[in-house]
Amino acid sequence: MLRITVLILAALVGPGAAAVQAAELVVYSARNEQLIRPLFEAYERDRGVTIRFVTDKAGPLLARLKAEGASSPADLLITVDAGNLWHAAREGALAPVRSAVLARNIPAHLRDPGGRWYGLSVRARTIVYHRERVKPAELSTYEALAEPRWKGRLCLRTAKKVYNQSLVAALIAHHGEAGAERVVRGWVANLAAPVFSSDTKVLEAIAAGQCDVGIVNTYYYGRLLKKKPDLPLVLFWPNQETTGVHINVSGAGVTAHAPHRAEAVRFLEWLSGEQAQHLFADVNLEYPANPAVQPDPRVAAWGRFKADDLNLAEVGRLQAAAIRLMDRAGYR
Amino acid sequence: MARAAAGAGPPGIGAWLNVNVGGWRAASLLLAAVVAAPLLVLAASSLHPDARVWQHLSATVLPGLLRNTLVLTLGVGSGVLVLGTGLAWLTAMCEFPGRRWFDWALMLPLAVPAYVLAFVAVGLLDYGGPVQTALRRWLGPGQWLPPIRSEGGVIAVMVLAFYPYVYMLARAAFLNQGRRMLETGRVLGLGPVAAFCRATLPVARPALAAGTALALMETLADFGAVSVFNYDTFTTAIYKAWFGFFSLTTAAQLALLLLAFVALALYLERRLRGRARYEVVLRPGQDPRYRLRGGRAWGATLLCLGVLALGFLVPAGQLAAWAWEVWREELDSRYAAFMFNTLTLGAVAAGATTFAALMLSYTYRLRPDPLTRGAVRVATLGYALPGSVLAVGIMLSFVWIDRRLGGWFGHWLDGPLLTGSLLALVLAYVVRFLAVAYGPVDNAFERIKPSILQVARCLGAGNLEILRRLSIPMLRTGLVSALLLVFVEVMKEMPATLLLRPFGWTTLATRIFELTSEGEWERAALPALTLVAVGLIPVALLVRRSAQA
Questions:
Q1: ipTM score here?
Q2: Which residues 6+ apart lie within 8 Å of A325 measured at CB?
Q3: Which of A159, A247, A314, B392 is a Cys-bridge partner for A331, taking CB atoms 3.0 to 4.6 Å apart?
Q4: Which pTM does this prediction carry?
């Protein structure tokens, strides 16, 4: 009995005790497996480096990094949204990286001024409208969706989603808290239905006629369009005369206690290059962060736009204020 | 023979038997410590309150959340109690068309995770969904159904997802007590309803309470289903504090507050139950069932069929339809590994958890002193914690242990022993699901007359022998129920699996996470359907067991 117990224990402990070998990288990723695995496989083929990874939400991964501290096996943290990256940096989980390659490939507003994280793909959060019930001339800015003429015509996703928190953080950066709060209160007053749990649901609600206009990330639109080619929805690029379309990134940073730091930096540089940028962005219909790399033809077909060049670290910094603001304004 | 004895319970079998319970007690206390460690870690992290986050939450969202949580708890609690007890009574005591089939089929919703049920319900019934779209096409524009994304909707979905806990335990209790309690009541001049309420229900009360407690703890811990409805509960505040304000400390404090709430509720239930004890001696054979006729019989069939359709057939059908669209791109050889991983984890964790519950419950019977009682209470609270919060607590305590071990045995150890190992994951499951296993095991213990054990002791049987030759055979139904329940729960579990699994270790539940985290629900239908299908095996076994009781 005892022997069996010991054997079982040994079998259970085995994988954890196995040492992390030399030509290897360990990645903690909040970007999900099917979006990130093709990149790992390509890099493994190209460079002969074995990549091991776990995926989870950003919060638990960051908690794990912090708890493991100096003994963490992780070399790289990949996560979505500038707020998560900014926070990981502030918690000291990420180490600064100085690299000429990264500085050349990734525009300044898409990376941490301290070099602790780099945006690798860009997602645009823009306005979408119903082809028959809205004329494009009615639309202008995110802020204008707060005007009374949109009463009962607006659909939004929940304020719990980090994408909306970043959007409101950008509004705070441009208009101050009071100005942003007026806009958010206007949105809430214009809602046609309780806020939705996902961007896809917002798109479906507009298509079904529950409302006329909404704010979504473009790749959700692309994904739904692939499934339903006759979708009566059109994207609109707002704020072209003013601040530009709100964008966010998914990105990565080398961890503070990376056991394979040099290898991790090389991987990060490779991720910013042309081949990886295509893989990174196209698989999810996002925009490459490297401006020299063209987006997927399906994405390019939605047209070019002026993007907000506010530094995303600022968006991250203001995110907590944005959440408080949305709580006050009753945006759930 | 069934016997209901009200009055003072025995001070503990251990005292009667005069056996040495030291070893058992020490083992149980150690177990409770392992379970309590994550909670203590969370509590310790709460010594530095983040005043700003607290102030903001209590000034803006907390009052509404408390109200919502209360409404949800009351709604789901009374819903599962009525539905679970009613269905259990029908299938345990009555005969109607399809009864044999419903016996086990009514357990099937247990195999469907609540967040899957929620997603399917909203997907089908919301304004943009197929049902309302079809209604608008026939009847003209407008809203033709009450909105599904509402308080009533979220309560209905959770009742459908969680009633099987009550159903299963109540059914076993009804089968055990047979018709005699009710008929005794009738003989004493009570009407059928009064006899049911005053004789049958009180004897089944521990089972009903245990089932409802499980359902409510699951409700309080739920985040997936409520976020599909965007219905804000206390759990929402916990996640807002953590993921929004990045204050794990505040999240932990809120979680502990939630636990206090749960502990108080459980305590009140026990107090209200008082010192009454109900012991039922297992009898061979079964009483004949009440044969329902005509309208009543078909009414019963229709009710069962309706619940089954809403709780299982429709969601499983929707999953199957989605899975059919995507299986070519999604299904590959990895699914064999996913299933193997899922089943292995489920089996190992179920065995470990049930053993832990047995040990705890037995020690408690041997000597219910305040320390042991406290250990039991603490050990069975983990189920009410939101999964991610508990997962982080477990991880923090494992990291701490690893540090200590590294300090002592650093020379021999090649990296962390616990974090990222399967052992850690299994321990996490034990912590999380001990309450699930403890309910059925303790319930079975509750129904064993102490005198039987005393007789065994008089005949010279030792502790282990009593456990092996008497308790375990008599507890078999409870033990098997516990094993299978934990098995199903572990397969569905997501947050702890995600955070603590070894590299490359994917289960069906983590696969669902990968796909749903970017909103690809249709592709997630394949792993979800596989999970439901694999979950059917233990559920079917569970029902066969309780049918034989």
A1: 0.86
A2: A168, A172, A177, A180, A181, A184
A3: A159
A4: 0.89
